[in-house]
Amino acid sequence: MEETTEIVSDGGDEAAPTAGVENGMIEEEKNMDGEVAPALISIHPFEKSVVVAVGSELRLFNLEGNCSVSLIDDPGGPSHSDAIRSVNFGASGRFLASAGDDKLVKIWETSSWHCIRTVYADKRVSAVAISLSGRYVAFADKFGVVWLVGLDEDDAKQTKVDKKAVPILGHYCSIITRLEFSPDERFIASADRDFKIRITVFPKQPLKGAHEIQSFCLGHKDFVSCFAFACPPGCVHGFLFSGSGDSTVRLWDFISGLLLATCEVGTKVGSLQYNGTEDGYPPVTDICVSSDGSIIAVAIQSLRGIVLLSCGFSDRTLSVAKVVTLEDNYFPTNMVLSSLTQRLWMVMGASNLPTLSATQLPTRIRVMSGFHKDPSDYNGHDPITLEDNEVPGGKKLLSELQGSFDVTMEEAALAAAAAAGRWRERRHHREAGGCAVIDGGLATELEAHGADLKDPLWSAKYLFTSPDLIKKVHLDYLEAGANILITASYQATIQGFESRGFSREESEALLRRSVEVACEAREIFQGRSLRGSDRCSKDGISSKQHPVLIAASIGSYGAYLADGSEYSGNYGLQVTLETLKDFHRRRLQVLSEAGADIIAFETIPSKIEAQAYIELLQECNIKIPVWFSFTSNDGINIVSGDSLTDCASIADSCDNVVAIGFNCTSPRYIHSLILSIRKLTEKLILIYPNSGESYDPDKKEWVASNGVSGEDFVSYVSKWHEAGASLIGGCCRTTPNTIRAIAKALRKDFHPSKPDQELHNDIERNILKDSFLIDYA
Ligand SMILES: C[S+](C)CC[C@H](N)C(=O)O
Ligand SMILES: N[C@@H](CCS)C(=O)O
Ligand SMILES: [Zn+2]
C-alpha cells in the first residue's frame, strides 16, 4: 500500500451533489430524492459544549459560557452542503470532527472553533472518529474503506485544506455504520451493515495501514447499528457492547471476538411498547454506555423512550433492567451520555421532512438524569427527564439547538420521521417497493438497426466495427426509461478478440471501450438536462430525474464458445473450475476497473461457473458490486440442471453480490423463480427475461416457441415486482418498446395514497439506493 493516496477532488464537481448519477431508482418527483438522515448529537467529554447536526448544519452551544457558538469555517474552502452523518468529539475534547454525504470531513479545534482541516473523501462518509491522543482522525466511506488523517501540532494553529488521507483498512464493500477507537487507542473498531464488527490493531505507524486484525465479533444477524466500549474497574481491556437491526444488544470480549451475552431487547420490550407495524422486532438504533459499563442506555426504532440494561460482567449476563417511557411522540434518533455528569442527552429529528422546508430543520432535545449504578435501584426510581428550563443551558440552548421548533406544528412530523428511523432491516429492502429498470436486448436492437450478428463475437463485433451504433442503442434504451445499461461486453473476450488478430492490449482496450461507450451514452442523455433541453418524454421520464448506472456484462464461457451452450452449461468434462477461472480472470479484472458501476454476470448456466466467479471476486479483490443472473428453462432449476438452492447460496455468500436473479429466461418461468429465490436470499432480486422464443445457435436466429408474447410479458411486470423483484428489464428479443412499457408499469406502482405511505416509500427507496447502488458510485 502506498504511504499516501491522493483522493483529490478535481474541483467542485466531485464534492457537488450528484444524486442524479448516484441514485439508481425511478423517481417521479424531484422531492422523492430526499433521504432521511437522523439528527445527531455529541457532547464534549468535559461537558463544555454540545453539538447537534441536522442536515448540513452544525449547531453548537457553549455550556461553560452559556452561549451559542459560531463555527469559523475555512475562508475559501467548501462548507458542509449535504447531510452530516457523523459528528464526534474525541476523548480529549480538543477537536470535533464532522462528516457526511457531501464527502467532506471537517475537523474543528474546540477552543477557537476554527475549522483546521477539510479533507475531501471520494465517497460519502458514514462515520468519523478521533483518536484519544487527538493525533488521528479516522473516517469510513460508503465503500467500506477506513481512511486516516494525521493531525500534527501545527494543525491546531492554522487552517488547512488537505486533500490527502490514507486508506488503512477495508470492509470489502460493506457500509461502515460506526467507527471508534478503543479507550486506550490500541484498537480501532468498525461495524458494518453485513452484521460484523472488526477490531483492528491500531499500529504504531498507522499512516502505513492497519493490517493486523485483532478479531471479528460475529454473531449479529442483521446490520450492526452501534457499539460502545466500557471498562469496569479492575478490567484490563474492557468490553464492547453492540446493537443491531436484529433487535439485540450483545456483549463481546473484543480482544478474542467472543460473544459473551445477548439481550433480545426487542422481544423483551414487547410489541405493545413500540409504534412499529413491521414484522419481527425493531432494530436497535443507538446505544450509550458509561465508561465503567454501569449505565447502558439503548434506543430502539419506534420506541417512545429508552431501555436500560444491566450487565453482569463476571457472570456474562445482559438483561433489561428498565424501560423508561418518554412523553408521547418522542423517539430519540441519537443519544450521548456525559460520563462527567451522567446525563443522557437525546435528540429527535431528521434532515428532511416532507412537510417542512429544508432550512430551519427542527430537532427536539431531551436530557435525562438520575441514573443508578446498580440497576436494581431502578425499582421505583426512574431516571428523570429534565424540564426544558432544567436542561443545562436552559431555553437558550434549546432554542439554539432545536431550530424553529414549534411544538404544535411540527412535533408530529418530527416524530414520524424519527419513528421511520435511521436504519431499516436489510430484509425489508426489496419488499419496500424500490426498483430500477434494466435495459432490453442490446443485440436485438443492434439487429433492428441492420447489424449482422452472425459472427463468433456476436454483438461484441460492433465494439470495433461500429461503437457508435452501440451508443445509439444505449441511448434508445435510456430514452425508453432504462436506469441500468448493460454494456456490449457479453460476448467480448480477450480470447475471442485475440483469435481475430487483436493484440492482448487491443483486446483489453476493446473491453474497456464497451464501458466507455455506455458512459458516453449516459453523458449525452444527462447532458441534455444540463443544456436546459430536458423535457419530460411522453412517458413522463425526465433525464434530470433519471439516474443511470452502467453494468459491465460478463457472459458465460458458453457465450464465448458461440454454440449456444450458455443455455445448457454443457461445456464437456474437460472444462473444470480452473479452466473457467483462467478464462474469466483477466476480463473480470479489466472490466471491474473500467469505470462501470457494477458487474453483471449474465446468463450463468451452472453452479461451477457461479463458483468460478465467486472465487475470482475474492482472489482478484474486486472492489465493485456485482449481480449474478442465472438462466432457467423449467422454472425450477437452472439450465444445467443444477439446483437453484445451490446456485443462490453460492451467490448469496459473497459480499460483492448485491442482486441475484435470472435473465434470458422465458417469461413464463419468472414468477415461480422469483418466489423460489426470495426464500434463498435477502439480496435484491433481478429479472430480465427474453421474449420466450428459443435460440438456434447454428443459424444464430431466434425461433418462435409457444412462449408468451411481448404484450403478455409486460402485463406481468407489476406481479413480478409485487413478488419481490426490484430490478426489472428485458433480455434477448426485447426492445425499447418493451422497456418503455416496463418503466410505465413500474411508475404506476409508485402512487402512494397516504402521506405516511409516501414517507415510508421515500425512506425505503433511499435505503435501497444505499444498499445497492449509491455507495459504490
Ligand atoms: C445470448 S445468445 C443469443 C448469444 C449468442 C450466442 N452466444 C452465439 O454466439 O450464438
Ligand atoms: N446482454 C446481452 C444478452 C445476454 S443473453 C444482450 O443484450 O445482447
Ligand atoms: Zn439474452
TrEMBL record:
Residues 424-746 form the Hcy-binding domain. GO terms for molecular function: metal ion binding; S-adenosylmethionine-homocysteine S-methyltransferase activity. Belongs to the WD repeat TRM82 family. Zn(2+) binds at C664, C731, C732. Pfam families: S-methyl_trans, WD40. This is tRNA (guanine-N(7)-)-methyltransferase non-catalytic subunit. Residues 1-20 are annotated as: Disordered. Keywords: Amino-acid biosynthesis, Metal-binding, Methionine biosynthesis, Methyltransferase, Nucleus, Repeat, Transferase, tRNA processing, WD repeat, Zinc. One of its GO terms (cellular component) is nucleus. PROSITE patterns: HCY (PS50970), WD_REPEATS_1 (PS00678), WD_REPEATS_2 (PS50082), WD_REPEATS_REGION (PS50294). InterPro entries: HCY_dom, HCY_dom_sf, Hcy_S-methyltransferase, Trm82, WD40/YVTN_repeat-like_dom_sf, WD40_repeat_CS, WD40_repeat_dom_sf, WD40_rpt. Required for the formation of N(7)-methylguanine at position 46 (m7G46) in tRNA. In the complex, it is required to stabilize and induce conformational changes of the catalytic subunit. GO terms for biological process: methionine biosynthetic process; S-methylmethionine cycle; tRNA (guanine-N7)-methylation. Its cofactor is Zn(2+). It comes from Ensete ventricosum. Pathway: tRNA modification; N(7)-methylguanine-tRNA biosynthesis. It is found in: Nucleus. WD repeats lie at residues 77-118, 217-262. It catalyses: S-methyl-L-methionine + L-homocysteine = 2 L-methionine + H(+). Forms a heterodimer with the catalytic subunit.
